[in-house]
Design brief:
The protein has helices spanning 15-26, 124-135, 197-207, 244-254, 259-279, 287-307, 315-330, 370-373, 380-396, 402-420, 428-449, 455-464; strands spanning 6-7, 42-50, 59-68, 83-92, 103-106, 116-119, 139-140, 143-147, 165-167, 175-179, 183-187, 190-191, 218-224, 227-236, 242-243, 283-285, 335-337, 349-351, 357-359. It is α+β, with helices and mostly antiparallel strands and 473 residues long. It folds into 2 domains: 6-236, no CATH class; 242-464, Alpha-Beta Complex (Aminoglycoside 3'-phosphotransferase, Chain: A, domain 2). An 8-stranded mixed β-sheet has the order 1-7-8-13-14-11-10-9, covered by helices on one side. Helix 5 (259-279) runs parallel beside helix 10, helix 9 (380-396) packs antiparallel against helix 10 (402-420) and helix 9 (380-396) packs across helix 11.
């Protein structure tokens, strides 16, 4: 077992003065930046650690910074002032052509004046340094690199030295690096204090022996103000696996059936839910808890109608979906809540050539508070997210394929019922409320980021706003 390598370091004074004008321009353009549409007015350093010794040809700094932006009036809006972001900053005199896409800017003032600044995660040497720190359980300044020790399932995971890194260039809400097709490091970008479910839940599942999640091999943490900040998680890389979203689109393009994979994905989801309910506490949601849940849904709908007036004609019908759930709660109906994935859709699933499904990315919806993401919730929320994903795939096809979506949704629920012992379709009011809440979120997202996609969730809004909107299949 490797001993931790400890190095106490800090970043030079004046570093943020060099970076401030560059980050104000670069940060809002990143896919993972939460505060789109509002200017960055300044930064506050949370921590700064020099990862390569001073005088090196390559400068390397790990930063946690708070990006300050004007307040927005809408309830629950993402990207409130003070969002903390994790940055890996590389510094060179000149940037080689291979790193041109990683350029942040050219510093003209402060400590780094005259140097080129870039996102170092795209560079081989910094990426190698992160893996070596994880492999050796290093301590560098306030950063801790931890390994999973024997949890009763066997020896520590072997992480070989010298694995060649490559950054994942696909658009993500975080950043990822693959090492030698053996491991993948997910580096969280928007950082909040506390236990992150993207580490907590896969660890709990792995320790229960679940075959549906790549088990965390190592992780990266900062201890600040007495609270842990989870910064990144290293997991085995699932080779030759197909992303569920891309696989569904490929089947649609071929006019091919997808019900068998959908049924097996339902089984996989139920296995994960069952394991999480065994590993972590559950709760019973009664009238007061359901009232708060419904109030949150209504509030999000009201905000969405203000943001996207196209929703206004459907508001009353959508509100009725929430009222129906509130009525059941008022009559004394209760539901079991447990830890769930929190943001389940086809893009969060991987399928092997043999047909085995894995679930990944347990962070939940990053825009929601961490405490909310860690609360027990009805499993129907995950199920509704997957049902929306099948509908999204079918509606994005040319021409749209609603029958394909109905068949996949039914098969998914059938597969889920075969493992869980209960069919989610037998609870249509709860399922409709969650699917409505998700569709409302999708309308706001598409209106802000991809207006051409707005007809996709609007097609679901029209169905869900009808009195028979509970007929989901």
């Amino acid at each position: 077992m490797s001993e931790a390598v400890t190095r106490a370091v800090t970043a030079p004074p004046g570093l943020l003065a060099s970076l401030d004008p560059l980050l104000r321009e670069w940060l809002p353009r990143q896919r993972w930046f939460a505060g789109k549409g509002r200017p960055v007015t300044g930064f506050t350093p949370v921590s700064a650690t020099e990862l390569l010794p001073a005088g090196s040809r390559l400068g390397l700094y790990h930063l946690l910074v708070r990006a300050h932006q004007p307040l927005v009036p809408a309830h629950g809006s993402p990207g409130l002032p003070g969002d903390c972001y994790q940055l890996l900053i590389g510094v060179r005199e000149a940037l080689p052509p291979r790193l041109a896409p990683a350029l942040i800017g050219h510093a003209t003032e402060g400590t780094l004046a005259g140097h080129t600044v870039y996102d170092a995660l795209h560079d081989t040497r910094p990426a190698e340094l992160l893996l070596e720190a994880l492999r050796t359980r290093a301590r560098i300044g306030g950063l801790r690199f931890e390994r999973e020790r024997n949890a009763g399932t066997g020896p520590d995971t072997d992480i070989p030295a010298g694995l060649v890194p490559r950054v994942v260039t696909a658009e993500q809400s975080n950043s990822s690096v693959v090492y030698g097709d053996a491991f993948i490091l997910k580096l969280l970008r928007r950082i909040v204090p506390g236990i992150n479910p993207d580490l907590e839940l896969p660890l709990a599942l792995a320790r229960r022996g679940s075959p549906r999640v790549p088990a965390p091999a190592a992780w990266m943490v900062a201890d600040l103000g007495g609270e842990p900040y989870v910064l990144g998680v290293l997991q085995p890389f699932v080779r030759d696996a197909a992303d569920g979203w891309e696989l569904a689109l490929d089947r649609l393009a071929q006019g091919a059936d997808f019900t068998d994979p959908a049924r097996e994905l339902g089984r996989a989801t139920a296995e994960v839910h069952t394991a999480l309910a065994d590993a972590l506490p559950t709760a019973t949601l009664g009238h007061s808890q359901l009232e708060a849940l419904v109030d949150g849904m209504v509030e999000r709908l009201e905000d969405a109608v203000q943001a996207v007036p196209t929703l206004r004609p459907y508001a009353a019908g959508l509100h009725a979906a929430y009222e129906a759930l509130g009525d059941l709660a008022a009559e004394g109906r209760t539901w079991t809540a447990q830890r769930i994935h929190g943001d389940l859709h086809l893009g969060q699933c991987l399928r092997s050539p043999s047909g085995h499904w894995w679930l990944i990315d347990f962070e939940g919806e990053p825009s929601r508070p961490l405490a909310e993401r860690r609360m027990p919730q009805p499993a129907e929320r995950d199920i509704a997210g997957m049902l929306r994903s099948f509908d999204y795939a079918a509606q994005s096809a040319d021409p749209p394929a609603p029958d394909w979506a109905r068949a996949c949704r039914a098969a998914y629920c059938t597969g889920y019922a075969a493992v869980a012992g209960r069919d989610p379709r037998t609870d249509p009011v709860l399922l409709r409320a969650y699917e409505t809440d998700k569709a409302v979120y999708e309308v706001v997202y598409e209106a802000r980021h991809r207006p051409d996609w707005l007809p996709v969730p609007l097609s679901a809004i029209r169905r869900l706003a009808m009195p028979d909107g509970t007929d989901l299949m």
